[in-house]
Description:
Blueprint: E1 2-13, E2 16-27, E3 31-35, H1 42-49, E4 57-62, E5 65-66, H2 72-78, E6 80-83, H3 95-101, H4 108-121, H5 123-127, H6 138-151, E7 156-160, H7 168-183, E8 187-191, H8 195-201, E9 204-209, E10 212-218, H9 219-223, H10 226-232
Parallel strand pairs: 3-8, 3-9, 6-7, 7-8
Antiparallel strand pairs: 1-2, 1-4, 4-5, 9-10
Helix pairs in contact: 3-6, 4-6, 6-7
Bound molecules: adenosine-5'-triphosphate.
Adenosine-5'-triphosphate (ATP) binds at residues 13, 16, 18, 36, 38-44.
Amino acid sequence: MALLKLENVSVSYGKIKALDNINLEIGEGRIVTLIGANGAGKSTAMRTVMGLKHCDGGKVWFDGLDITNKDTGYMVKQGIILSPEGRQIFPGFTVRDNLFMGAYLKTKEEAAETIDMVYELFPKLKAREKQTAGTLSGGEQQMLALGRAIMGRPRLLLLDEPSLGLAPLIILEIFEEIKKINEMGTTILLVEQNAKVALKVSDMAYVLETGKVVLHDTAQALLNSDKVQKAYFGGFAEG
Ligand code: ATP
């Protein structure tokens, strides 16, 4: 059984149909990527899974449970956590305090245990734990956003554009961390403009065009697809 399943999901903003009857599945333990041009509906798909946007048709299932149009707090309790586009860390707070904010539903003991795991994964965050987040580099801020998401012990982690605004070498580093987070047992749904690097760490991928799924295959098959290469591999870091 899939951990996450979107069944004939449609979502609109007024008259704009951002998602048009899409079907999508993520198996437990997998990394799945959504690829698509600006405005294709990728962020909307994430927002819908997170309960930030309601569907006007279709069903969303999480581990067999119907979570369609539940609120965000409910999704977090189920173990779904979003690391949003633009990171949205709190620049005036320390790295440590930012991390603890990700564990607001956990006990102190759980949070203390998880922060050790985060520091093991991101030694750079440990070295800067007392620094305010606004003084971190872009790559470190992305690590902090990932670390904060892990603090909530997600079963399903939604990552919206983790490479946004980062230099090519830092992007590769971030994707290595994403792979490690996955190997620790977290299922990941990834939205990425940088399709090539994302496909390299993914198991499966879906290509969205104006709210519709137009292709769906293993990441390896899409990496080798002429159509995907021509449409989505231009102008980004080589991985
Ligand atoms: P990007 O890569 O640019 O973030 P995306 O694939 O994530 O694009 P979405 O942000 O999901 O695309 O947008 C899908 C469609 O919905 C677009 O046509 C967009 O203009 C529209 N849309 C998104 N958010 C809103 C909103 N709050 N109000 C009105 N329309 C919106």
